[in-house]
């Protein structure tokens, strides 16, 4: 029996992702999933740039990650010019939600969601690709959603933006392939973050039920696993996509959804 293998590390050894020498940038890194991604990438050895609307939360995550904070409004195209271009791993995570029927949906809110969740990722990819192409390696990871693959009523702007992000990711995968750059979406179900806590409170009020019931009866109705996902579980998928054995995975969408999509 062989106890010692020669050659490159096998999958078990490589599962410990080593990102020493890599530079990552995480948008929306001040909170929730983005914060968990920034910490996971830093723990794997990457230098992490944390971008967020809120200066305090960006700073708090950057301090915890030993990284660099950037307070930037991603809806402000000109402000993106202040961000670094020499990024090896780009995690497009920043997002927001607005829930209303189409006939009452404020067009300016619809436009804002497209700006933050489609236009900003496009501009960030555009900024980072020349560096990635020049070195022949790069990882683009986009925090999409199960709403990038399926629709729910009253979330027209969010569902439109996430479907747009899915298309953008696939095109980046095709263009990036000859240059060693992969592009993938991670598609969470409901994650325990401030974004979802806001929705739980709003739904509890709208339905006149308590927040526990919103989670069990409304949000997780389709989910096979009846609990919210933790941000660290999403970050683990992001980290895996940056590891040594995922170079052939590109243009795909990875549900982390407790079986929501299977139902
Ligand atoms: P979160 O805790 O609210 O984090 C989102 C972050 O994005 C916040 O720090 C927010 O800053 C930032 N952000 C929003 N607008 C911005 C702007 N214009 N410029 C810069 N930063 C901005 O939410 P989350 O749940 O972690 O969501 C992260 C991503 O995961 C989103 O794209 C979301 O659609 C996606 N997602 C979430 C879930 C879920 O169940 N939570 C499920 C599927 C997908 P402020 O706090 O200062 O506004």
UniProtKB/TrEMBL annotation:
In terms of domain of life, where is this protein from?
Bacteria
For this protein, the record's SUPFAM superfamilies field holds: NAD(P)-binding Rossmann-fold domains
Which InterPro entries does this entry report, sorted A to Z?
NAD(P)-bd_dom_sf, Sc_DH/Rdtase_CS, SDR, SDR_fam
Q: Which residues form the signal peptide?
A: none
The record, for PROSITE patterns, names:
ADH_SHORT (PS00061)
Q: Does the keyword Oxidoreductase apply?
A: yes
Entry-linked Gene3D superfamilies? NAD(P)-binding Rossmann-like Domain
* Any GO molecular function: 3-hydroxybutyrate dehydrogenase activity
Query: Which E.C. number(s) belong to this protein?
Result: 1.1.1.30
Q: Name the family.
A: Belongs to the short-chain dehydrogenases/reductases (SDR) family.
Q: What is this protein called?
A: 3-hydroxybutyrate dehydrogenase
Question: Which species expresses this protein natively?
Answer: Streptomyces polyasparticus
């Amino acid at each position: 029996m062989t106890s010692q293998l020669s050659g490159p590390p096998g999958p078990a050894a490589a599962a410990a992702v080593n990102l020493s020498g890599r530079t990552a940038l995480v948008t929306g890194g001040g909170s929730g999933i983005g914060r968990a991604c920034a910490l996971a990438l830093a723990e794997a050895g990457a230098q992490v740039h944390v971008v967020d609307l809120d200066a305090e939360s960006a700073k708090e995550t950057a301090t915890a990650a030993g990284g660099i904070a950037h307070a930037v409004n991603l809806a402000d195209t000109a402000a993106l010019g202040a961000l670094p271009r020499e990024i090896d791993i780009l995690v497009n995570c920043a997002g927001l939600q607005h829930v209303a029927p189409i006939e009452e949906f404020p067009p300016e809110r619809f436009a804002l969601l497209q700006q933050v969740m489609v236009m900003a990722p496009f501009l960030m990819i555009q900024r980072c690709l020349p560096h990635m192409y020049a070195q022949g390696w790069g990882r683009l990871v986009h925090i999409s959603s199960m709403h990038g693959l399926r629709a729910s009523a009253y979330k027209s702007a969010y569902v439109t933006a996430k479907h747009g992000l899915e298309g953008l990711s696939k095109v980046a995968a095709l263009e990036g392939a000859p240059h060693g750059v992969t592009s993938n979406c991670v598609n969470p179900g409901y994650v325990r973050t401030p974004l979802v806590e806001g929705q739980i409170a709003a739904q509890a009020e709208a339905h006149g039920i308590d927040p526990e019931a919103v989670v069990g009866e409304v949000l997780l109705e389709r989910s096979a696993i009846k609990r919210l996902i933790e941000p660290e579980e999403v970050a683990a998928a992001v980290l895996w996509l940056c590891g040594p054995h995922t170079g052939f995975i590109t243009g795909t969408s990875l549900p982390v959804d407790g079986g929501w999509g299977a139902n």
